[in-house]
Amino acid sequence: MSIWSKLTSTVKTHAEAQFLDVIEWLDDSRDTLLYRYPIFNQAIQDGGKLVVRPGQAAVFVSEGNLSEVFAPGTYELSTRTKAIWSFFESIQYQFNYPYKGDILYVNTRRFSDQKWGTAQPFLFEDPQYGGIEVRAFGIFEYRITDPALFVTEVVGTDGLFTTKEINKQLKGQLVEAFRANLKKLAREKGITVNHLDSAFYELKQDFLDGMNPVFEEKYGITLSDFSIEGLNLPDDLRAILNKRREMDMMGDVNRYTQFQAANALRDAAKNTGMAGGMMGAGMGLGVGQVMGNMMGTATAAPPPPPPGGALLHYNGPGGQGQFNAQQIADMVKASRAGTHSVWAQGWPAWKPWNQVPEIANLIPPEPPPMPGGGRSFHYNGPNGREQGLQTHEVAERITGNPDFNHLVWADGMPGWTDPRELPEVMALLNSGPPPLPGGDGPPPLP
Questions:
Q1: What are the strands, taking DSSP E only, across 150-239?
Q2: Contact 94/86 with Cβ under 8 angstroms?
Q3: Other beta carbons less than 10 A from residue 367's beta carbon
Q4: Largest CA distance in the chain
Q5: Based on the domain organization, do 76 and 128 belong to the same domain?
Q6: How many domains does the chain have?
Q7: What is the CA radius of gyration of the chain?
Q8: DSSP 3-state assignment of 208?
Q9: Do 32 and 144 reside in the same domain of the chain?
């Protein structure tokens, strides 16, 4: 083919090209992140319009290099438009294919209701139950906030990019970060499996604060929401937790037994054959008692729970865990000077042992201190500081110089104290010497 034929062919191709007056993208889908505008065999009309709607951004890529990003608005495309200057140059002076580049529309709206979940269970260390295998699931929401970075780092040469193509990658990082954040929260704040639901909001805020810088720098994406819809626990642990909730609701073992028996009666009523079998085989001793109470028969009531039978949460010198009142009372008696704290379901805060009647009633009161005996004091007086003084010695120091500001301290006292405020010291100061034989006082002076 001659040179003239080649030129003629090129001019013909250019002349038959469809010139675009308006470039815009109308998206009806809910999962398209990026759309490459089709301009093959088409040319952009000088003075044409580029329409970028709210929730969109348009990215011009010239011969593989990102040229410019257009925010929402309407733009005139002409020789004054930097992004396509080379295109109009080729139209005016050459006959090759016009505008060697791409126009990419990026969807910048929020993509909500994206589901995430742990494909495999992970180990959660609970202070009471030990290592527990847990699964978690929920939803997250994100949007593209840096279209240029998203195009260069994520999309590449794809002409159509949807949430399906990136969600798998995002989910993997979300799950890994969620597991690390949950373990950190449990370690730093002592969160147990019983209190995970109430910790979800705090976990969410920490998670968003930690993950957004990573996603923004790596993908040009911002996480706008992340929620935890629930946890899947092992069936055996779930059964234990359900039983504990039932016991907390019933308040004591006796009422819990009645509750279980009532449930058995209800199930038996649905199946008369089952009820007859249960009663005939003697399987329902508790059921029979409930039936007797309901029918007004003189069935003996079940025995009351043993003293201190209900379990209480305990923290003190004896350790930490759940014990009955008698066990806690024994630990208090073994270390009476220690701090023993108790808590039960429904209490607003921990209580000292002496404010829990079922424990305090099991501990006899301390005997009063012996006169002149008792604690060993650190003493500060007119002659300086002394150590190891007994109560009667402190009383002697005060008697010898009653106007001085005497101070004492002993183990268990919050700080230095005026000994006149201590009952054992005042008992000695107020006693005085015994009367002399044969009279009520000293003889008169000569």
A1: 160-162, 221-232
A2: no
A3: 6
A4: 158
A5: no
A6: 5
A7: 42
A8: helix
A9: no
- Cβ–Cβ < 8 Å for 71, 57: yes
What does pTM read for this prediction? Answer: 0.48
CB within 8 Å of 11: residues ≥ 6 apart: 95
The answer to whether 325 and 307 have CB atoms below 8 angstroms apart is yes
Q: How far apart are CA 134 and CA 235, in angstroms?
A: 11
Give the domain-ending residue among 235, 260, 283. 235
Q: Which domain holds residue 340?
A: 312-360
Specify which residues 322 forms β-bridges with: 313
Cα distance between residue 7 and residue 314, in whole Å = 94
Residues 97 and 116 grouped into a single domain = no
Contact between residue 20 and residue 47 where contact means Cβ atoms under 8 Å apart:
no
Summarize pLDDT for 206-258 with one digit per residue, the tens.
888 888 898 999 899 999 898 888 777 777 776 766 666 665 555 555 555 56
Nearest to 27 by CA among 165, 163, 190: 163
Q: Report H helices in 220-283.
A: 235-250, 253-270, 272-281
Task: Return the sign of the alpha-carbon dihedral for residues 412, 418, 423, 424.
Answer: positive
Segment holding 184, helix H or strand E = helix 163-189
What is the token pair recorded at 339? 């701090």
Q: Which residue intervals of 282-322 are DSSP H helices?
A: 285-295
206-230 burial, b if ≥16 CB within 10 A, otherwise e? ebeeebbeebeeebbbbbeebebee
Contact 84, 99 (CB under 8 A): yes
Whether residues 45 and 19 share a domain: the answer is yes
Does 209 fall in a domain? yes
- Give 423's contacts (C-beta < 8 A, 6+ positions apart): 369
Strand order in the sheet with 384-389: 384-389, 377-381, 407-409
Read out DSSP for 81-111? -GGGHHHHHHHHH--S-S--EEEEEEE-S-E
pLDDT tens track for 270-314: 665 544 444 444 444 444 444 444 444 444 444 444 444 689 999
Q: Are 102 and 119 members of one domain?
A: no
Assess if residue 434 is contained within a domain: no
Structure token digits, residue 421: 């405020």
CA distance linking residue 330 with residue 308, whole number of Å: 11
Q: What does the block give as tokens for 280?
A: 């005939």
Query: What is the C-alpha separation between 247 and 275, in angstroms, rounded?
Result: 25
Are 210 and 276 contained in the same domain? no
CA dihedral 375, 380, 381, 387 (to 10 degrees): 50
Top pLDDT among 102 and 162 is at: 162
φ, ψ of residue 324 in degrees (nearest 5): -85, 175
What SS3 state is found at 304?
coil
